[in-house]
């Protein structure tokens, strides 16, 4: 028992020494454990610190990395060679990281521009001093960056399947994941099949058995807003195919007749040596077969 008590006392003493050594080092960091930013907008990551050298005038290096402490990828780095020298950026991954603070004033805060989904990660702040012992310190828990995003309709398509007939698919994204609703020509809601994407912020709603011609609207909603996208569906029936072909030939014949008339008039005017030359203006109208996609986005009433 005495031997066990001696061992416990030795371990306690060792822990006291380690704790005292950490406090005596004079290093401390203040960072936010969690930060939330919106996709497409900037966000600030705060990092302030203290170090044991009150009048330090040597080289100072500030570093931000992602993923894990000490071994994660460096996405920002700046170097200041003396107290009168600004911390010059030497690394800025994809040129989207900007220094907000002044490391000489114990502030290594940065700004991330134009947030994308890949920016959701854990960020670690690190400071290095070129002293005799090459003092350096890095946050171990870091800052977790969470992303939010209002709904956005990415794509709407119409496809044919032998089992379900014509179907409309609406792909949307957002965080939180938006809910999707389909409305049809009669402004009624339809039962849809939800297909979860491999990306957690994307979702697909499939509407089967398109029967009526007209406008089908996909509505995406979450706590940050609402977005709409529409597709215009027109299905040609087999019984009217010959009539449509007749109309096509008739329209083509009328256009050819008008062309011959215009060419004849141009030739006649040319023989009269008229100084005014006729100008032939043709309007090109693009015709859609069965679908056309438009999109609207509405900001949330309580989202700033």
Overall domain count: 2
**What separation lies between the terminal Cα atoms?**
66 Å
Looking at the structure, what is the overall shape? elongated
Oligomerization state: single chain
The CATH topology annotation of the largest domain reads as Immunoglobulin-like
Category from helices, strands and their pairing: alpha+beta
Describe what this molecule looks like in 3D.
The structure is a single chain. With 304 residues, this protein is α+β, with helices and mostly antiparallel strands. The protein is built from two helices and 20 strands. The protein folds into two domains: 23-141, Immunoglobulin-like (Sandwich), CATH 2.60.40.10; 148-234 and 289-299, Immunoglobulins (Immunoglobulin-like). Strands 2, 5, 6, 7, 10, 11, 12, 13, 16 and 17 form a ten-stranded mixed sheet that branches. Strands 15-14-18-19-20 form a five-stranded antiparallel sheet, with no helix packed on it. The longest helix has 31 residues, at 241-271. The chain starts with a helix and ends in a 5-residue tail after the last strand. The model is unreliable at 1-24 and 276-290 (pLDDT under 50). One of its GO terms (cellular component) is plasma membrane. Keywords: Membrane, Signal, Transmembrane, Transmembrane helix. This is Sialic acid-binding Ig-like lectin 15.
């Amino acid at each position: 028992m005495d031997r066990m008590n001696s061992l416990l006392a030795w371990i306690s003493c060792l822990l006291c020494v380690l704790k005292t050594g950490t406090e005596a080092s004079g290093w401390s960091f203040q960072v936010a454990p969690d930060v939330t930013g919106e996709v497409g907008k900037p966000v600030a990551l705060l990092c302030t610190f203290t170090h044991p050298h009150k009048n330090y005038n040597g080289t100072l290096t500030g570093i931000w990395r992602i993923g894990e402490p000490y071994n994660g990828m460096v996405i920002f780095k700046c170097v200041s060679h003396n107290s009168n020298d600004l911390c010059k950026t030497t690394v800025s991954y994809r040129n989207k990281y900007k220094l907000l603070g002044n490391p000489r004033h114990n502030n290594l805060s940065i700004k991330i521009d134009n947030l994308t989904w890949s920016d959701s990660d854990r960020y670690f702040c690190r400071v290095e001093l070129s002293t005799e012992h090459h003092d350096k310190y890095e946050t171990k828990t870091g800052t977790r960056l969470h992303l939010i995003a209002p709904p956005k309709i990415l794509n709407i398509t119409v496809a044919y399947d032998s089992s379900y007939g014509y179907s409309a698919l609406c792909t949307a994204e957002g965080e939180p994941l938006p809910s999707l609703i389909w409305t049809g020509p009669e402004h009624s809601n339809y039962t849809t099949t939800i297909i979860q994407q491999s990306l957690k912020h994307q979702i697909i709603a499939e509407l089967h058995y398109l029967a009526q011609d007209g406008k089908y609207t996909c509505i995406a909603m979450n706590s940050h807003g609402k977005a709409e996208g529409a597709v215009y569906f027109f299905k040609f029936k087999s019984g009217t195919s010959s009539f449509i072909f007749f109309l096509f030939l008739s329209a083509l014949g009328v256009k050819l007749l008008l062309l011959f008339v215009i060419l004849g008039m141009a030739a006649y005017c040319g023989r009269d040596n008229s100084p005014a030359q006729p100008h032939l203006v043709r309007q090109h109208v693009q015709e859609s077969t069965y679908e056309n996609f438009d999109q609207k986005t509405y900001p949330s009433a309580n989202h700033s």
